Amino acid sequence: MNQPSLTLDLCQSLTRLTRQMLETDQCKTQTHVLGRGRIYRITVELTPVPPEQIDDVIKAYQ
Fold first, then answer.
1. Mean pLDDT, all residues of the chain
2. Residue at 27 is within a domain
3. Is 22 inside a domain boundary?
4. Which of 5, 26, 54, 56 is deepest in the core (most CB within 10 A)?
């Protein structure tokens, strides 16, 4: 995972979104947001991490 880190606040917001999506049995959603004077399309897709990859995911955050 060579992606920039997200802020704790953003991670918490994404966790809330994930919970809401799972409560309504949604695994993918799309919306539009406004930022810096432009409209952006945002797609969120929940993809479960296979059990054999969990250790690698945890290590990526250490």
1. 91
2. yes
3. yes
4. 26
